[in-house]
Amino acid sequence: MTGGAPFSTPLTQALGCRHPVVQTAMGWVAGAGLVAATTEAGGFGFLAAASIPSGQVDGAIRAVRAATGGPFGVNFHMLQANADEVIEAVLRHRVRAVSYGRGPDAATIRRFREAGILCMPTVGAVKHAVKAVELGADIVTVQGAEGGGHTGAVPTTLLLSQVLDAVKVPVVAAGGFHDGRGLAAALAWGAAGIAMGTRFLLTTESPVHPDALAVYLRAGDPGAIRVTTAVDGLPQRFIETAGLHRLEGMGLPARLAASLRHALAYGRASGLTLPGMLRLAWRSAVTGGAGFAATVMAPNLPRLVERGLQGGDVAGGLLPSGQVAALIGRLESCEALIGRIVAEAAARLDAAQALKGGQA
Fold first, then answer.
1. Quick one: average pLDDT of 161-175?
2. What is the CATH number of the domain that holds 140?
3. pTM for the whole thing?
4. Which terminus in the chain has less CB density within 10 A, N or C?
């Protein structure tokens, strides 16, 4: 690898992108603009359909297609109100790939694969990676504990090694990546590429409110970007803010009451009737594996994250983030970011090869 030429890996070959760099699907962040900018820069972007209102998924996919002729994907989960709408839109538009966490069943995955759409779930545990491949996953993204949003307890370095040994499909490394050194390390480990969320959130094409971006850029301590279970009962990583402190200071009854208010607001915005909301809650409790408390508190998350990221309410909203935000001090365009990462990775791998040659 010399001169910063494009890397060719099983990931780039499968997805059709120039560089093994994936932009993850962050709700209220990974819209058509960011996805198209990532694709135009040679990476692979995922559209965050989980935060697209009902009736607007088709338009969002068309907006990406209008802005770029390159490949891109769509992310969703089966517990969102318009999951069926997303599935049908993805099949209709034949996007290159789908990503998911709480994903579809084997029959739906089969539909995607028969349509030529790659399935690329994100997992946080070895057993989940193995299960995903058994269900038909073509590629697996592994997110370690450093990552933002819902996260596990195993660091990327350990989890990546475990999953690489456990599955035979291409593996993408996520959690803590932001530069070319990380890409070089992931490739040396045996990964087919890297996926980044927080780093793409902090680009000039990011739609995040300027006030929220300023908080991310000031985050100088990785320890202050921490995990809490106060939002919906599941471990999630956020930047430490007044809004997070307030939520953590609430008793459980107060948090449940807040979640009920958010659920009603979400239902109205999504066009759900009360029976429809109850059916969605029941499906979450039965299939999500999160337990009663997490199911009841789940509506806290989207409303508070939307308030923080889109509204710029850094005191009342929430700012999900990977710990890597503490290492990022400026915004870059997607083109500059991906170009720099690829060049740095090439330089690091060339240096390693030269070191090996000197020892021969």
1. 98
2. 3.20.20.70
3. 0.88
4. C
